[in-house]
Specification:
Helices cover 39% and strands 15% of the residues. It has helices spanning 13-26, 46-60, 95-105, 144-164, 179-188, 231-242, 259-268, 283-292, 307-314, 327-330, 342-354, 357-372, 376-389, and strands at residues 30-34, 64-69, 78-81, 84-88, 113-117, 133-136, 174-176, 196-198, 218-222, 249-253, 275-279, 295-298, 319-322, 337-340. The radius of gyration is 21 Å and the shape is globular. The strands form 2 sheets. Strands 3-4-2-1-5-6-7-8 form an 8-stranded mixed sheet. Strands 11-10-9-12-13-14 form a 6-stranded parallel sheet, sandwiched between helices. The longest helix is centred in the middle third of the chain and has 21 residues, at 144-164. It has 13 helices and 14 strands.
């Protein structure tokens, strides 16, 4: 991808009216959002797409939104995007104290409410912010700390996430993306269930069925090449599946510092002729890949959701993915895709779906039904309801019924 982009579309009359009603009742007109990375960052992913889409829809409704993140290489320190203000200052870790200091001293300008996007490292906003407040916490990072920082520093990160920070947030409404992630937050981080709500993300209207399926079995995987995504495991699983589905091809979309490891795995399994590292692709190219694929796949260890799974679903393409929090909600098991355990399970799931035309047809229909449940307007309105009311009571998934 050339970097994630947002094309959520416009609010309906009813959605705009509801946001205006909530803004009038709460007095919230100016919202500041604190996040780790900006949408234009080279390593931006689903979390940044989510935040930026909601910010754009809030701005469309007349709210003044400021998004603060770390500096992004090659991008200006300040600017505007889709109607909201962007501030990019500070290093990857320096952004946390610098953003807090800027809010405390008013350098970001006046605000009526604050959204903290807690992505592993918290901004500890309850210590310095008084006013309408919400935290977006997409998932528990758990083993991701060790993957990114090694065992010694990883233990420090886990201690911060699991023991030190959660008590500070006990009075703040926390919004997550899926019911399975909600369970993790209450079980692993000790959040009270009445303070955690679920608001599922939407799907951009540009993701629709069309085009032509590949004549041969095509698997597409889209994500940053980071340890948590476990692309090497996916390549090995695809190689095992290819022993049963001899013309299987795999296309990997994305860039990241794990690329050399993934390339080494491709060479180790003899995949040079059937695995293609596409790197960054355009939005149109990504949609074409979703539409031509027989399935999308993910071997990820942790996810708050599975945005590429639901984007593909809107194109009528089912998924084969690890059975983890986030995936377990983005995918309706055996309805819009298959949830599997481990490398062998991933290989078996790929071989099963690619080798069974009747199963693929059923899952393709289920994928479209699942995607139809998800809209960015609902996401934007429900998150503002939490911010305006201080309650997660209305933060519920739209589609809770099974197949």
């Amino acid at each position: 991808m050339t970097g994630p982009s947002v094309h959520a579309g416009s609010l309906s009359t009813a959605g705009r009216a509801r946001l205006a009603e909530l803004a009038d009742a709460s007095g919230i007109r100016r919202v500041h959002m604190l996040g780790w990375r900006d949408l234009d960052d080279d390593e931006a992913g689903g979390s940044e797409v989510h935040a930026s889409t909601v910010a754009a829809l809030w701005a469309e409704a007349g709210l003044e939104v400021t998004m603060r993140s770390s500096a992004s290489k090659g991008r200006s320190a300040e600017g505007f995007r889709d109607g909201y203000r962007v501030i990019r200052r500070g290093s990857r870790y320096g952004v946390f104290p610098r953003a807090a200091a800027a809010e405390i001293t008013g350098r970001h300008g006046p605000s009526d409410a604050l959204v903290e996007i807690w992505n592993g490292m918290p901004f500890v906003s309850p210590l310095w912010w008084r006013g309408p407040h919400a935290v977006w916490l997409h998932h528990v990072h758990g083993p991701m700390w060790n993957m990114a920082l090694g065992d010694r520093l990883g233990k420090v990160g886990r201690l911060l996430e699991e023991r030190v920070a959660p008590p500070l947030y006990r009075r703040v409404p926390v919004v997550t993306l899926s019911a399975s992630s909600e369970e993790e937050l209450t079980r692993d981080l000790g959040f009270s269930q009445d303070r955690v709500g679920v608001v599922e993300p939407g799907i951009d209207a540009r993701y629709t069925p069309g085009g032509t399926r590949s004549e041969t079995p095509l698997v597409v995987a889209v994500a940053r090449l980071a340890p948590v995504k476990r692309f090497s495991m996916l390549v090995r699983a695809a190689a095992r599946a290819r022993e049963r589905v001899g013309d299987l091809r795999l296309v990997i979309v994305g860039e990241g510092y794990m690329r050399p490891d993934v390339v080494a795995t491709i060479e180790a399994v003899g995949g040079q002729s059937w695995v293609h590292m596409a790197g960054h692709v355009s939005d149109d190219e990504l949609i074409d890949l979703y539409r031509s694929a027989w399935c999308v796949a993910s071997a990820s260890e942790r996810e708050g959701w599975g945005m590429t799974m639901t984007e593909a679903a809107a194109c009528g393409t089912p998924a084969v993915a690890t059975d983890i929090a986030g995936h377990a909600d983005a995918i309706r098991a055996d309805h819009s895709g298959l949830l599997v355990d481990g490398e062998q399970g991933l290989a078996d799931g790929l071989a099963r779906l690619l080798g069974d035309a009747a199963l693929r047809t059923r899952l393709q229909a289920g994928a479209l039904l699942r995607a139809a449940e998800l809209t960015w307007e609902h996401t934007a309105v429900a998150n503002f309801e939490v911010l305006a009311t201080g309650s997660v009571a209305n933060a519920r998934p739209l589609g809770t019924s099974g197949p």
